[in-house]
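for the writeup, i need someone to sanity check this before i put it in the appendix. the sequnce is what the collaborator sent (i think, or maybe the updated version? ugh). structure was predicted straight from it, no edits. if anything looks off just tell me and ill rerun, i have time this weekend
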Amino acid sequence: MSRQYIDCREYPSTMNCSVALSADNDKELLEAAVQHAVAVHGHSDSPELRKQLASMFKPGTPPLTAQAKAA
């Protein structure tokens, strides 16, 4: 499996989070993303959260700069 990432900068929020996480496998990335979402963004760990986060994974590594998605 190739490296994957998830990048908070792509999802605007009131806190303007700039964290980007990457890992060599889905399981490791999902655990890190869940920990971040719970600890920093106040989400509750649930199957729905895990499914939503996993759907946001992208191949490769985070770019140095990211553009926010249009609402």
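Residues 4-59 form one domain. The first strand starts at residue 4 and ends at 7.
thx in advance!!
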